[in-house]
Specification:
Blueprint: E1 5-10, E2 15-19, E3 26-27, E4 35-40, E5 44-49, E6 54-58, E7 66-78, E8 82-84, E9 95-96, E10 116-118, E11 123-124, E12 127-128, E13 131-132, E14 139-141, E15 158-169, E16 176-177, E17 189-195, E18 208-213, E19 218-222, E20 233-237, E21 243-248, E22 254-258, E23 263-267, E24 278-282, E25 291-296, E26 301-305, E27 309-314, E28 325-338, E29 344-348, E30 354-358, E31 369-372, H1 439-446, E32 544-548, H2 566-574, H3 579-601, E33 614-625, E34 633-644, E35 650-660, E36 663-670, E37 676-681, E38 686-691, H4 693-698, E39 702-706, H5 709-727, E40 738-742, E41 747-750, E42 770-773, E43 779-782, E44 788-791, E45 797-800, E46 820-837, E47 841-843, E48 854-855, E49 875-877, E50 882-884, E51 896-899, E52 916-931, E53 933-935, E54 941-946, E55 960-964, E56 969-973, E57 984-988, E58 994-1000, E59 1004-1009, E60 1014-1018, E61 1029-1033, E62 1041-1046, E63 1051-1055, E64 1060-1064, E65 1075-1080, E66 1083-1088, E67 1094-1102, E68 1107-1116, E69 1127-1133, E70 1136-1140
Antiparallel strand pairs: 1-2, 1-32, 2-3, 4-5, 5-6, 6-16, 7-8, 7-9, 7-15, 10-15, 11-15, 12-13, 14-15, 17-18, 18-19, 19-20, 21-22, 22-23, 23-24, 25-26, 26-27, 27-28, 28-29, 29-30, 30-31, 33-34, 33-39, 34-35, 35-36, 37-38, 38-39, 40-41, 40-70, 41-42, 43-44, 44-45, 45-53, 46-47, 46-48, 46-52, ...
């Protein structure tokens, strides 16, 4: 579960955060002002301080916020001066933007606020379209504007070059005031809410910020995204009345509360119009009592009325933002907030505690029950005497029963100390008034009993104490709230804003003399007496005024430590046991068990075993996809016969019994010949495939289908354990293991044999045994010291914990520790296709030869919104279908791409020759499983690489580089064998986003930019882990690279057309190399190991039975003098997407071939039978 924060404000205006992995409220120490409201996203938190200004707190991250400022310098050629600054009157400015319409000299760029700083001075960009330009960065064209090239031609009359300067946002983890505009200032703000990050992924980190002013106006903050976290300007939204509170969800839901108690809903919110178009009025849940508060999520709306009742709005979704009706819920609250995953938090009416709504799931959005969050604050500590009644409700209430000699003062809420009081049994129970720090909400709540208080003077809760108790009492005019009277009930206060001002403490003689003459106004409260050290007693919970979970990622699977102090007591108890004691106990217990085993076993070794051999059989019924045509499913009986010999070795045989032409037949396979068991989950059947070396060559496994998913998992776990037992494999994967990932996200490992890279007779690739490891990933990378990282489909980074099993592996097939819950989210895509006709324009009626009007990317399979299901029953939908605008080639405003015909090259604009168009729809689904993986928050990654070490390596800190999903290059610090997750990220500056990275021996770091160009990082060393600069490496001619892998001395890349390239001329003195040499085509991924061994995932491999896509291939003949190898050996295939051999540093055995002329030389042992191997230089002949 990613660590995220729940934010809250107490009645003193202090801001706290509670981590999903923590057990106490952490106070924001850097807040210089008291705050009224906060609203959060996962990357930042906004707040309104008591000065009514808005402040922003951007969470610290290893990934900096950098904004690239750019301007263009333009020159024209003339016969006298050549290229010069003298332009024609009709030309663009000498310094301009890319269009030439805006004047942009270098000195016109200023920092937008004090929260920014310049990284460096202006410099010329010498990269053009992925290729280096000549010295000076000039690009040439015939005229302005035209197509520019990096080469100067005879007709080049104009030239330009781009100047770049970066500014960095420096106000991280601190509250920075949002700068005010020079004109059109909004009036002071009263409420604020952020959301809208799910409306569109572009631009990155876009947020919608809504605010309500004291005059009831609604404002929208425009231009908030990752590179501009503060936004640009305020835009006023017209509203049908005076608004008192507003709530914005992660998607397109925005609701607000009117002064009269009605609610309004914003309509028309979308990707191109995040502020919406119009308001729709929705009646209050109760006709007699108006609403005072509303909270919205993705598909839910919660509201609170003036009588503190909680209401849930049913039928709310993006198509019907108004919903269909109200449902009354249990509980009385003063405010409510909906966070991520539609989880709900609220503040109780009576106790002012923070409550969490349990049981909220996608199928039960209303949840089941309220549960109070009971964790301490970071400033809580024990006191010598606990106060029976504490300062309550923003300092407006406390017990006046002070005995004897006490401290007489008025003090700051930051420095209160407990005073002695009467026993709790004798003190009257204090009444906690319902106070918020907002004037509008407060006055609305007080309106429910207007007859109780008609005084318009100070915001004081006046309460009397019994004069017989002997206290000295100030008159009510002094602004002091006293203890409640036994005879008369307390009066409801007149509500106001609460501004806390520090007062000075004074000591007094005997008796409690209250010396405060300050009065209250609508914006302040009386000073405080009883100079307490803390505002709350040691045994009392804090009083909360506001809570926000907009950045708190919690779901029904989250394990939270917020609700009980039992975990703290267990933790404190376990801390009393030192690691040294634990180690001593383990050693003592192990010695005792060893002595007992020796004592009980040694005396009976001369007896023969009672049972020499055991045989057991497990049978079942399944369906089998028969080998001959016509292929179809057949009902078969399936049996596993397993036996063990006298030495304890185990083996077994699989039998498949079937009937063909009324004749009983069977198919069998030896367990020790099974190389892999692959689950193949789909909607119709629960199937899995069994491979042997022979069937791997044929590309035709044994395919079986179980009746239920549970039965399939039972068989897979049993067969996996049997295969491991027959090969003597137990426990977690070794440090030398080869890892691979299928296109479905399943993870497999193989233990390499010493002869895998032997020359001239290596172990055939199809004889490798692969076993599954729990979890779900898209990419895995490893090295030979045991550091293994993975990346999920949702770009979440995971680190291997050292366990094995997980997922459907239970019992002996899985380790009991180091197994954690893992989640993954990915998008499912379908395409809407249309053809143009002269009568109706573009329509969903195509030609008879056209593709389906709703299809997959290929157009061969029909995929509609209703019949498209998640990849397997393990996945569940977590969003609705939405148009995807982030398609390669660009789209128009409605998401359409145009082309001349199906299929063709698509573009994001319409021309006269475009007769077809398509747009992509996306829907997200989520998987929850278990495996030996722990999350590495908080930056999502797209690629990762780890230094490949040799078996004798003694590297203490392992270099690890990564690329974020936004293209930033990162270096992980503190990665060791004991702490494989590392400690922090170090950002490495780049001029453009990257997509692939790899580090080889001697800290060679190569990377691929998103434009397909290659780069080499110079001067990387243990002393300088991030290096100093990037060197641009020209790509192969007319090719765009997409992936790179670096070994000991070899550098391999794969381009977007599936070609594999080898970098020639790489030497220690010239690590950039000299040129690219083509090795093979039909390659999807490449992995180069620490011994320069080369493995790939081939796109298509033809077998004797079928064609398989995504096949593991091994490059043969790789030697120090021949690093490019000679041919390919084919291994497991059919749906593989990734492989890494960067952990296999096992040196192959040296085989000395005997001389043919020496008759005395001994005859060589018979090597493994060599296979027919392709020697055409390509992965496949196709």
């Amino acid at each position: 579960m990613p660590v995220s924060l729940l934010w809250a404000v107490d009645v003193y205006g202090r801001v706290y955060s509670l981590s999903t992995g923590g057990q106490q409220w952490e106070q924001c120490r850097d807040a210089q002002l008291e705050f009224k409201r906060v609203t959060a996203a996962q990357q930042c938190c906004w707040g309104i301080a008591c000065d009514h200004n808005i402040y922003l707190n951007v969470h610290a991250s290893d990934l900096p916020i950098r904004y690239q400022e750019e301007t263009y310098e333009n020159h024209r050629w003339n016969p006298v001066d050549g290229f010069s600054e003298r332009l024609l009157p009709s030309d663009r400015w000498q310094w301009s933007d890319v269009t030439g319409l805006q004047h942009q000299p270098l000195d016109s760029f200023i920092l937008p606020s004090k929260s920014w700083e310049w990284e460096a001075d202006w410099y010329v960009d010498e990269n053009f379209g992925g290729e280096p330009t000549e010295k000076g960065g000039w690009t040439y064209a015939i005229d302005f504007p035209a197509t520019y090239t990096k080469d100067k031609k005879w007709n080049s009359c104009v030239r330009r070059r781009r100047w770049i300067r970066y500014r960095r946002y420096k106000a991280r983890d601190t509250w920075a005031k949002i700068p005010s505009e020079q004109s059109g200032l909004p009036d002071p703000f009263n409420d604020i809410s952020c959301g809208g990050w799910e409306i569109s992924e572009e631009p990155r980190g876009r947020l919608s910020l809504w605010a309500v002013s004291l005059q009831g106006k609604v404002w929208f903050r425009d231009g908030i995204y990752h590179h501009n976290p503060e936004g640009s300007n305020w835009e006023e939204m017209s509203v049908p009345g005076e608004v008192v509170q507003i709530s914005c969800g992660p998607g397109d839901l925005v609701w607000a509360v009117l002064w009269e108690g009605q609610l309004i809903v914003r309509e028309g919110i979308g990707r191109d119009c995040p502020q919406g178009t119009s308001w729709v009025v929705v009646d209050s849940p109760s006709p007699e009592v108006g609403a005072i508060h509303v909270g919205v999520g993705v598909n839910v709306v919660w509201a609170i009325t003036k009588d503190n009742k909680v209401w849930f709005r049913r039928g709310v979704n993006s198509h019907n933002p108004c919903g269909s009706g109200w449902i009354g819920m249990v509980g009385e609250m003063i405010m409510i907030n909906v966070g991520l995953n539609d989880q709900v938090w609220a503040i109780g009416c009576e106790d002012r505690a923070v409550y969490f709504r349990q049981g909220v799931t996608s199928s039960e959005l209303s949840g089941k029950a309220w549960k109070v969050i009971s964790v301490p604050r970071d400033g809580d500590r024990s006191h010598s005497s606990a106060s029976a009644s504490s300062l309550q409700s923003a300092g407006c209430f406390f017990s006046g029963e002070v005995r004897g000699s006490g401290l007489v003062a008025s003090a700051s809420p930051e420095s209160f100390a407990d005073a002695p009081t009467e026993p709790a049994s004798e003190a009257p129970k204090p009444r906690i008034p319902k106070v918020t720090s907002d004037s509008f909400i407060s006055e609305l709540v007080s309106d429910r009993e207007p007859g109780k208080n008609t005084s318009a003077a100070p915001a004081i809760l006046e309460e009397e104490s019994n004069p017989a108790e002997g206290e000295v009492q100030d008159p009510p005019a002094a602004g002091i709230a006293l203890s409640p009277s036994q005879s008369g009930g307390p009066l409801d206060p007149q509500w106001s804003n609460v501004d806390l001002e520090e007062a000075q403490s004074q000591q007094a003689g005997a008796g409690a003399v209250l010396d405060s003459a300050d009065t209250c106004s609508l914006s302040s409260v009386a000073t405080y007496t009883l100079a307490l050290e803390e505002p709350y007693g040691a045994d009392e919970h804090p009083l909360w005024a506001w809570v926000n979970g907009g950045g708190c990622s919690v779901d029904c699977h989250s394990q939270l430590n917020w609700f009980s102090s039992l975990a703290q007591s267990v933790q404190s108890m376990s801390l009393s046991i030192t690691p040294a004691q634990t180690a001593a106990w383990r050693k003592q217990i192990f010695e005792q068990l060893s002595e007992r085993s020796k004592r009980e076993m040694d005396n009976f070794r001369h007896y023969e075993q009672a049972i020499e051999q055991s045989v057991w059989v497990k049978k079942g019924t399944m369906q089998w996809w028969r080998d001959w045509k016509p292929h179809k499913w057949m009902d078969v009986r399936f049996a596993l016969e397993q036996f063990s010999g006298p030495e304890g070795n185990k083996d077994g045989i699989l039998f498949i019994y079937y009937n063909f032409n009324e004749e009983k037949k069977y198919l069998h396979a030896f367990i020790n010949e099974v190389t892999i068991l692959v689950p193949v989950l789909n909607d119709s059947k629960h199937t899995f495939a069994i491979y042997t070396p022979e069937r791997t060559k044929q590309r035709w496994p044994i395919r079986l289908a179980a009746a239920t998913e549970l039965e399939m998992h039972d068989w897979l776990a049993l067969l996996s354990v049997s295969c491991c037992d027959s090969r003597g494999i137990q426990g977690p994967p070794s440090k030398q293991a080869i890892w691979s990932v299928t296109c479905k996200g399943d993870i497999f490992v193989s233990e390499p044999s010493p002869g895998l890279e032997a020359m001239p007779y290596p172990t055939p690739c199809d004889q490798m045994f692969w076993r599954q490891v729990g979890g779900h990933l898209r990419v895995v990378e490893c090295n030979s010291v045991g550091v293994v990282w993975g990346i999920g489909y949702d770009h979440t980074a995971w680190v291997y914990t050292g366990g094995y099993g997980g997922g459907f592996f239970q019992g002996l097939a899985s380790s009991t520790d180091n197994i954690y819950t893992q989640t993954d989210v990915k998008s499912i895509y379908i395409y809407e296709n249309q053809r143009w006709n002269p009568v109706t324009g573009y329509t969903n009626r195509g030609l008879p030869t056209d593709r389906y009007m709703w299809s997959d990317a290929s157009g061969l399979h029909e995929c509609t919104k209703t019949n498209t299901k998640p990849p397997s029953p393990h996945w569940t939908w977590v969003s609705e279908w939405a148009v995807d605008y982030s398609v390669s080639g660009g789209t128009d405003r409605e998401g359409w791409q145009y082309a001349a015909d199906f299929p063709a090259s698509y573009h994001g604009y319409k021309t006269l020759k475009d007769f077809v168009r398509r747009r992509r729809w996306a829907r997200k689904c989520k998987l929850t499983t278990t495996g030996p993986w722990q999350e590495v928050p908080p930056i999502p990654l797209s690629d990762v690489t780890i230094l490949p070490c040799t078996a004798q390596s003694s590297v203490e800190v392992v270099p690890l580089w990564a690329i974020s999903n936004k293209g930033d290059v990162l270096c992980r610090l503190g990665v060791t064998t004991l702490t494989p997750a590392g400690s922090s990220w170090l950002h490495v500056g780049t001029d453009q986003p990257f997509k692939s990275i790899s580090i080889g021996a001697a800290n060679q770091v190569w990377a691929i930019a998103r434009d397909g160009s290659a780069f080499y990082r110079g001067s990387v060393s243990p002393q300088s882990p991030a290096g100093d600069c990037w060197f641009h490496i020209p790509s192969p001619s007319k090719q765009k690279l997409k992936q790179v892998s670096v070994g000991r001395t070899s550098v391999y890349t794969v381009d977007e057309n599936g070609n594999l390239w080898y970098r020639q001329g790489v030497t220690p003195s010239y690590p950039q190399g000299s040129s690219w040499e083509h090795i093979s085509n039909n390659v999807r991924k490449v992995s180069v190991g620490p011994l320069d061994q080369v493995w790939i995932i081939a796109d298509k491999v033809q077998g004797s039975h079928s064609l398989s896509c995504g096949t593991v291939c091994h490059r043969l003949g790789v030697q120090p003098m021949e690093p490019k190898g000679q041919s390919w050996d084919y291994g497991i295939g059919g749906g593989w997407d990734h492989i890494t051999v960067r952990g296999n540093s096992m040196e192959p055995p040296r085989i000395r071939l005997p001389s043919l002329t020496d008759p005395s030389a001994p005859a060589p042992r018979s090597p493994l039978s060599a296979r027919n191997m392709e020697v055409n230089g390509n992965a496949v002949r196709c």
